[in-house]
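Progress note, project year one: complex with copper (II) ion.
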Amino acid sequence: MAADHDPSPTGWSRRSLLAGAVAGAGATGIGAVSAAALGATDPRLSAAQDGPRPGLRTEPFHGARQAGVATLPQAFSAFIGLDLNASATRESLRRLLRILTDDAAALTQGEAPLNDQEPWLARNPSRLTVTVGFGPRAVRLVDRSRAPRWLRPLPAFGIDRLQEKWGQADLLLQLCCDDKLTLAHAQRVLLKDVRSFAAVRWVQDGFRNTVGATEDGQTMRNLFGQVDGTVNPYPGEADHDRVVYGQGGFTPWVQDGTSVVIRRIHMNLDTWDEADTPAREDAVGRKLSDGAPLTGRQEHDEPDFAAKGPLGFPVISSYSHVRRSRSDNPDEKIFRRVYNYDLAVSDASGRSRSGDVGGGVSNTGLIFASYQSDPEKQFVPIQKRLDELDMLNTWTVPIGSAVFAIPPGCRPGGFIGDALFT
Amino acid sequence: MNNHSHTTDRTAPHTTEPRSLPRAVRPAHRALAAVAALGLGMAALTGCSSQNGEQAASNGGESSASQTAAAAPLELGDGWAKAADSGMTAVFGKVTNTSDKDVTLTGAAADGTADSVQLHETAKDGQSGSTRMKEKKGGFTIPAGQSITLEPGGNHIMLMGLTCSLQPGSDLTLRLSTDAGAQDVTVPVRDYSGAKENYAPGDGASGSSDEHSSHGSHEHGEHSSHEGMDMSSSAPAHEHASHGGHADSPSASALPECHGR
Ligand code: HEM
Ligand SMILES: [Cu+2]
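Model obtained:
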């Protein structure tokens, strides 16, 4: 290894990894990939690259808003639904929140919680964030009068094939982290805290590219191969605070609070395989190569929904996902922060058919996490339109659905949700 | 510092991390122990961390650290207690002697929570070879400016005969006695599955293994005698409850919850 590399415990460094990757590509005859071929990069999706190695990077825990929403998405996630014990009280919930806050505050900063039995596993925080959400029962326990109107199951949609096991829970713990080992440890520590108060209803593991795998600032791809997340009110943009925190628009359920809708959406890769590139691009209205609208040249070009092809049909089909998910009503906007899932399949063979959520060699989909100030005014109308018509429905099936109210963040010395206890 | 070469390092593992929180703004529970260490005069402050988090946090910072040295000889850092519904439990943490004289921790009391409190050490039993805890006669002497670590599997403060159930997420206040006076400390209570070492008050205690006792029912904890007990018998009842899904109604014999949230 070159002498000028920063020494790190394992002897690896980002630079050596990158150098190795390029050398490897050359050796196998692929050649160096040009930056242009990798697609556009977006400053809104860039992490500050200077500073400590990725494992030592941290996201602040305390603040007016909880981390994990505006946070640049980390590589891995675990969305954990918890059901409080039947005997749960306001008081026991308060105790649980204090413990979770205390340990999350430590873990996210690379410190081992008090009673951590594997404290060494806490040393690479890797931008760990822990976000707590309240289901209907939790908010009612704390203060019935503060329960937002929209904190109830979404209306039923025709495309839904919901499974109870991915349904509404009393509490949400959303863990996101650039390192899977650190995430697993944090999850273990927090669930040990939880187990005398609540049962684990579900854990939804998700992932994106790992740090350094893609050019910094690139929009993620899902397992359909699509560039996913192009049009989104990113933090720092005028829309973000309005869409996510209701500022200057909706009435937030609590100042600096928001909501998350977690839709678990199966993606049928076997029937997707049957579609060729033109059909796939037609279904979404964007190119697979770089995510550019079918009417544009670059990812962030505005789609031209009025443009017509030689035969007089719209270039971006009226049934395409981007056409259908975009509303003229400025209220109907959401902030998407989605993760892929891809579960191990055993004894797999053959292909699954259209509409199936099992069979085939893959169990794949999206943990579609949507943040907005008011799910019923923002998320539901979009989902309704997609339910009525969206070519993408040919290959996707919602199998889980849950809504959580996300309380504001807390200051040092406080605990997540403390604003609701006063 | 020879005493804690093997201890768990709870300080920030990488002081080079620029964005990690300074000590002064660490979470309330951790700050709390330091606040409590200000001594008896500050007892009114204990247990108020979440109701008045700002106060706890601002008092847990550097400003109080300098006062502490003058006001009280001991500081309990990152202290915590193991949750238990009945029977026995223990308190852990790093006890620092901030004075320039040796101080001996001679005992402790938890009025309203436990019938008795002892200082324990864990030692290998000469005959069976198993590790047992026993009372540390004479207490723990902490050299000037140094620390000792109380930790599961090692030295600890033992609460015996709980009179109320110590719930995770609540606070426990202890009075520490030293040859330089007494002082109150408050620690958060946490679930913990370890710290099950056998307790050997004399030589004749039977050597039931952890395995066996952890399968025993929690009635174990109702025995009036401490003899031969081990801490697993005080496993919190809520753990049992969670085995049965949501059926977690407390048993008829359950102790009331301890005060102090
Ligand atoms: C597995 C399911 C889904 C897949 C694979 C998927 C994929 C995509 C892709 C490839 C785009 C275009 C690039 C972009 O702007 O991000 C897109 C845009 C979008 N999707 Fe989805 N999506 C899915 C489900 C949903 C759902 C359930 C909703 C909301 C209810 C939704 C709302 C949107 C919105 C609002 C846009 C941006 C539209 C615009 O250009 O204004 N998507 N999606
Ligand atoms: Cu003991």
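Chain A touches chain B through 47 residues (CB under 8 Å).
The radius of gyration of chain A is 22 Å.
No further modelling is planned for this target in the current period.
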